[in-house]
From TrEMBL:
Compartment(s): Cytoplasm
Organism placement in taxonomy: Bacteria, Pseudomonadati, Pseudomonadota, Betaproteobacteria, Burkholderiales
Binding site for phosphoenolpyruvate: 308, 345, 471-472, 482
Single GO biological process annotation from the record: phosphoenolpyruvate-dependent sugar phosphotransferase system
Catalytic activity: L-histidyl-[protein] + phosphoenolpyruvate = N(pros)-phospho-L-histidyl-[protein] + pyruvate
SUPFAM superfamilies recorded: Enzyme I of the PEP:sugar phosphotransferase system HPr-binding (sub)domain, Phosphoenolpyruvate/pyruvate domain, Phosphohistidine domain
Organism: Inhella gelatinilytica
Encoding gene, per UniProt annotation: ptsP
Enzyme class per UniProt: transferase
Annotated protein name in UniProt: Phosphoenolpyruvate-protein phosphotransferase
């Protein structure tokens, strides 16, 4: 039966593929494709794990004391029966054979299938056996993951071996930014999640991968079944499940159109972005990993405006990267950009980008209901000075290879800048005494907290440049959690308070001769290109995939006309009037 699921469109385009359902609690098991030759080995792992769990259960049952409640023995018998049930391990082996899933993934996939069958059962007793099934699977997974590395190298290589089968799309309750990173090698054609909003970090990573995604579907992962054919319409925020042949053909046509448009835009790659009246606009890239720098250059990036260094810290089971590891990563990005500036933001963990490791003062964190306002970003760095200095050393060392700009996230107070400058002084002295080479590093601050926008004049003397993080600026100005889909309709960049702050920050920077750029999602949103130009912005930093589209818009804009329009936008009484002032439906 064909039906539709609605959510928030976060990454454009159309993806068509078979649904791979992954429960978020099980996303932390490895998911990777295996090569043909490894099918036997993975199947054997699964069988061996089953046998081990079965014998553990037998031992447990046999060792029960005579006064143990009889229910306990009965429960272990049920678990034993489930372990041997063909519908579990034997059916999982079929995922290994036909889909080339690794053993853990195959078992999790089969669990999703069986869990739904249990959910649909009329009989209460049988329905409740789902919990037993989950426990049995957890046991087998535990055996499987014993002694395996957290980041199997096969994650990349196996996926490539597996080209040519049905395309796949990932459907999950939620996907953490760290998990998104694992799927960056192009295994999935699109993503659907139950939760999330337009600027949640999962959405941002999906956009950086330039693959269609719909988030905030609420029930999507419950309604869509494993292996269903799914169309993700990333423009409209709709997921069509088991589409009819006519609908499918329409979407395939749209896919082809999008491909043609992409080819047309690619021709603008090396055209400088200049407005109709001759204003030069800088087009920078936002990147998550050093290997993103090279492709960014290929699509015309003139530098990196935001390297979200926290992605180097994720998916490592809480193990922080050493100074050397970080240095090599930053150096790779700097070398790839061949003399163009690379803006490295110090680690911005917390809120929806958690580290697996407990934050300092763990018990306090456990009680925090609102992590977006907690120990995040620069606050976290300053509370862990040894870790912070380690990162600064790595960044300063990388500056020996090319121009580096150091960017501080979530600053809200001049005191934080002074503390950072003290740390920098110490780090530079240390590196000098070690005889290590360094270049000159510009210091910049992100304006993403309203307080920073309001006291900008007192911050500017301490910094060389400013980067406006509109994602958080909107979140904190409007008090809308950017990751919460229940309020995502209120997350509105057209709000006069947001536009007023933006205009004010850009103007103040220009008056004080400090370079200013926008690196939040607004920079890559065509609806705002003219508005930002009109406010005086001449530097945009965005996902590389957006660069050509925004450049095309810049080439068609007149900055003087934009400046005149902006007066109406800023003076608009409500978001709809602001959008209408630039002829946008908003
Ligand atoms: C922002 O807040 O706009 C920004 C660019 O930072 P992040 O999205 O990583 O929080
Ligand atoms: Mg931010």
């Amino acid at each position: 039966m064909s039906f539709q699921v609605f959510g928030t469109a976060v990454a454009r385009g159309v993806a068509i593929g078979r649904a791979v359902l992954v429960a978020s609690s099980r996303l932390d098991v490895a998911h990777y494709f295996i090569a043909d030759v490894d099918v036997g080995e993975q199947s054997e792992r699964l069988r061996t794990a089953r046998e081990r769990v079965a014998s553990e259960l037998v031992q447990l049952r046999d060792a029960l004391p005579s006064d143990a409640p009889p229910e306990l023995a009965a429960l272990l018998d049920v678990h034993l029966m489930l372990v041997h049930d063909e519908a579990l391990v034997e059916a999982s082996l079929e995922w290994v054979r036909s889909r080339h899933y690794n053993a853990e993934w195959a078992l999790s996939a089969q669990l999703e299938v069986l869990a739904r069958q249990f959910d649909d059962m009329e009989d209460d007793y049988l329905r409740e056996r789902k919990a037993d099934l989950e426990q049995v699977v957890e046991r087998i997974l535990r055996v499987l993951t014993e002694g395996t590395e957290e980041w199997p190298s096969a994650l990349q290589s196996g996926a490539r071996d597996f080209a040519g089968e049905d395309p796949l799309v990932l459907v999950a309750g939620d996907i953490s930014p760290a998990d998104m990173l694992r799927f960056r090698d192009g295994v999935f054609q699109g993503f659907v999640t139950d939760i999330g909003g337009k600027t949640s970090h999962t959405a941002i990573v999906a956009r950086s991968m330039d693959i269609p995604a719909v988030v905030g579907t609420r029930e999507g992962s419950r309604l869509i079944q494993q292996d269903d054919w799914v169309v993700i319409d990333g423009d409209a925020g709709v997921v069509v499940v088991n589409p009819s042949p006519i609908v499918l053909e329409e979407y395939r046509f749209r896919q082809r159109q999008a491909e043609l448009e992409r080819e047309r835009l690619a021709r603008l790659r090396f055209t400088p972005a200049v407005t109709l009246d001759g204003e030069r606009v800088e087009m920078l890239a936002n990147i998550e990993l050093p290997q993103d720098a090279e492709p960014a250059l290929q699509v015309g990036a003139e530098g990196v405006g935001l390297f979200r260094s926290e992605f180097l810290f994720m998916g490592r089971g809480g193990q922080l990267p050493s100074e050397e590891e970080q240095y090599l990563a930053y150096r790779q990005a700097v070398l790839a950009m061949g003399g163009r500036p690379v803006t490295i933001r110090t680690v911005d963990v917390g809120a929806d980008k958690p580290l697996e490791r407990a934050l300092p003062n763990e018990s306090r964190q456990d009680a925090i209901l609102n992590p977006a306002m907690g120990l995040r970003a620069i606050r976290w760095s300053l509370s862990e000075p040894a870790m912070f200095r380690q990162q600064l050393r790595a960044i300063y060392r990388a500056s020996a290879e090319g121009p580096v700009r150091l960017l501080l996230p979530m600053v809200s107070h001049g005191r934080e800048l002074r503390q950072v400058r003290d740390c920098i002084e110490k780090v530079c002295a240390q590196l000098k005494s070690r005889g290590q080479r360094m270049g000159s590093v510009e210091l910049g601050v992100m304006v993403e907290v309203p307080a920073a926008a309001l006291v900008l004049r007192s911050l500017l003397p301490w910094v060389d440049f400013v980067s406006i993080g509109t994602n958080d600026l909107i979140q904190y100005t409007l008090a809308i959690d950017r990751a919460d889909q229940s309020v995502s309709h209120l997350f509105d960049p057209w709000h006069p308070a947001v536009l007023g702050l933006l205009a004010r920050v850009i103007q103040e920077c220009r008056e004080q001769n400090k370079s200013v750029s926008v690196c939040g999602e607004m920079a890559g949103d065509l609806a705002f290109t003219e508005v930002l130009l009109g406010m005086g912005l001449r530097s945009f930093s965005m996902h590389p995939t957006q660069i050509a589209r925004v450049k095309q818009r810049v080439l068609r804009c007149d900055s003087a006309r934009a400046a005149a329009l902006v007066r109406d936008v800023i003076n608009a009484e409500d978001p709809a009037a602001a959008a209408a002032a630039v002829g946008w439906g908003g």
